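Incident review: delayed structure delivery

Summary: a single-chain prediction request sat in the queue longer than the usual turnaround. Root cause was a stuck worker, restarted by the on-call engineer. No data loss occurred. The affected request and its eventual output are reproduced below so the record is complete for anyone auditing the incident later.

Affected input:
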Amino acid sequence: MQVLTEVLDGRWAAVRGDIREQMAAQRPPEPCGLDVDQHRALVSEQLRQLADTGRPRLGFPPEYGGEGDVGGAVVSFEMLGFGDLSLMVKAGVQWGLFGGAVQSLGTEHHHERYLPAIMSLELPGCFAMTETGHGSDVQSLRTTATYDADAGEFVVHTPDTAARKDYIGNAARDGRMAAVFAQLVTGGRSHGVHAFLVPIRDADGRPASGVTIEDCGAKAGLNGVDNGRLSFNHVRVPRTALLNRYGDVRPDGTYTSPIENDNRRFFTMLGTLVRGRISVAGSAGNATKRALALAVRYAERRRQFYGPEGEEVAILDYLAHQRRLLPALARTYALHFAQEELVSALDASQGTTEVDATRQRALEARAAGLKAVTTWHATGAIQAAREACGGAGYLAENVLPSLKADTDVFTTFEGDNTVLLQLVAKGLLTNYRDQFADLSPIATARFAAEQFVGAVIERTAARQVVERLVDATPARDDDEIVFDRGWQCKLFEDREQHSLDGLARRLRAATKDTAFEVFNTAQDHVLHAARAHVERVVLEAFVAAVDRCSDDETRGLLDKVCDLYVLSTIESDRAWFLEHGRLSGPRAKAVVAGVNQRCRDLRPHARGLVDAFAIPEQFLRAPMLAGGEDG
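Output delivered after worker restart:
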């Protein structure tokens, strides 16, 4: 399966290979059985060791000691998803969120002063955006940073409990500084949310003056991450604490910005932080791979009930068990290739000083959609893997319970998935306007009511391949057509186009008086349209990956895996396809039969498909797999 591993490793194969070698040379610590304090101490030490490898420098600018490889940095974080996810999250907070905020929102002064210390972990930091009362609605954050022109300082203040910064990684134990998102107020006027660098601990580790730090305590998972709560009581920071790439305040209190429109400025600032969302999707994907690798290995070893030959049958030979694991494995492959395309787009976007607003919005929408579907898939697939291992899968020593607990929160951090899919649907409607940039239901429906809204399918890198396949689709019987890639692509495309057209018509029916009601009533439609779009994009990424595979045997295997992704996706949404005349009754039955056929076809390759992920073996050691024949 070496060729398949090479296809999966893609553009950043060297980064993946280097990290695998480093991981293979280390004995992974065992967080199982540790209490919260012990787990935090372990992860903190692991973070220090990670800093010493130099890998966190990958994504930072060369002029400050980095390597300028944004895509490589994301892949590096993804690889941490094979191990203790607390380390991945803590590393993501330090170098992705805190370091990313300084890099993306700060200017030369901040870069020179802070980036070297952030990269080396000399300055552990936090990303303090979410508040107790506001999570997804970042524009409505209540923390204030009011400029005092006489003193040349900002006064950062938490006006009430709802404005307390909550769930902040690195805050409870290790963080010394926070990138605090607050309403910038000067001259009595608010200029919207900006980020400020605020010290939260002194050199001795005590809370800084005016800063209150609380511990969130034990969580359902990720207990190696020291999540905390931060409150500020008129904390003063210098004027230069403002990360001022997109908005600055002169000594006399005059506010300036290269972007005049408040909404556009806000979304531009948030857009620069998209790397964290992409990293979460990749890490969730790798945690899913680990769970499926464990479950497939177990399913090849575990035997239940006697077959016609008089011997007990491996549970993976049962179709019902194949259906538990193999469609999930096929979707994992599909999402892997979509993630690879997304990381390449991010690398191209952040590797240039020229900002293309249209491309940036497309990147943000795709990142939002993939983060949502990948983390939801992780939740479902890891649960399926746990169940597929029976009682053994419920034992902490066999890893699956910690994977289940640690990934559960991925569906709601770095953006609540339901809100993210609304963002995707919004981005698919044409005639984008400034007032439509606000995610609030009223603004969205009002814009739709005032404009003629059409829906389009954007062109992707795989479109030429897809269009060639669609054009070549012959007329076939139901049992054969379901395996035709052109028919599959056309079906996904039709579903997306129809869903978007219908959504546009529903929103256009709104008036200013009925805007909220119309949008709220259409939210199920919004989410379906967004998911249809993301699943089409994922399919096209898979098609492109198969097309560029030069090894015939590997390509044939990937073709079957792609079939299983497509047909299991159609099967799960059969009601829509039948209701809208896209499938006849006999063809819908052929889809179900096709899923069964591809499960049987892929059964002999199941172990090879999970081995191709090349997960370091020490992360696949579990007592339930010990002893006897190894698959």
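Verification: The radius of gyration is 25 Å.
Action items: add queue-age alerting; document worker restart procedure.
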